[in-house]
Design goal:
mainly beta, Neuraminidase, five-stranded mixed β-sheet
Length: about 375
Amino acid sequence: MVGFVLGGLIALSAVPQDTTLLRPDLVIGADESDPTTLFTFVTGLRGEASGHIIVSDLGVSEVSVFDSTGSPRLKISEVGYGPGEIQRPLESAYSGSDLVVFDLGHNAYLWFSEDGNPVARVPNPFGRRGLDPLYTTTSGYIVDGTLGDEPQDSFVVRRFRRSPEATTHDPAVDSIVVHHNPLRAVHAGGATFVAVPMSTRPSWTVLGEDIVVSTNGAYVLERRSFNGHVDTLYARSTLDDRPIRIPSVLRRELEEAFDAALRSQAERQGLPSNAFLDEAEVPSHFPPVIALIADPGGRIWVLTGSESGEPSLDLIDARGEHLGTVQLQVDQWPNMLLGGIAASSSHLLLVAESELGTQVVQGFRIPEELRARD
């Protein structure tokens, strides 16, 4: 696809682009002979420049780190409220050599050293927060998201920095208010779902010290700084922005998966399993943008739908140039509500449901020509 510059925007012509098809070459969490290696309820998935993969499993209260081959490197699994213990880990990311975990049970951000020893604990300064990604910046900021006053219409991206000398304190907070409502939200028993075919991961990610956001699910990516500066990084032309209808067979699969997720949510809240089913509505079309994923090289992977129903991602660099497109040929359908999708230096990663009813992390090796270079 040919790109050209128009008034500061990167626009694309309607010339069809080459798409690279990827099959998974890495699966983590599929060893049925060892129940301690299985994932049950993944809420956080991160890839690192080292190739390491971080998985936060809320179901068993564990945070696990794997290398690029899927071999375990670190597991934090001591459950409790004391130093070094976790309760309900939602998201994790590396900040320098330290691992930062947001723990819902502690309602705090927990720092661990490379060998898993506790370093610091910062109480959550954001009030309530949703299932948003957790990022760190090179300057030491923690960047996270919380729900806005109207959860179906907005969320707030916030950052704070921990003092290197302090092990616990209440940090100052900077905020960016972002509106995001690509599809109708489903409100059920205090929870909010957005019925999209991949994940409810919000359409924002960190780029350098700024964020990149897709407002209202449009294929227009804005780069926003915490001092108020806004710049359009990338815009797809309207010719390429046609909605793609979800095939009927896939739509039935999505409806079944979404119903199952809502039943599970009701049962966890002690309600009848059909309590939320009338509120479920799977869309007829893929939204233009489902999620944005930053990779360790400072590029943005834009997750969209495809006619086959499998994940399709455009790669855009920090200058707004389109570098290529890949389509992931999945073995199991990705987890629709939680877990999300991530990128390490070597793989695109996503959470999928296994045949056992547990979850696995699938890795798709990024083609050499699309790898980030130092």
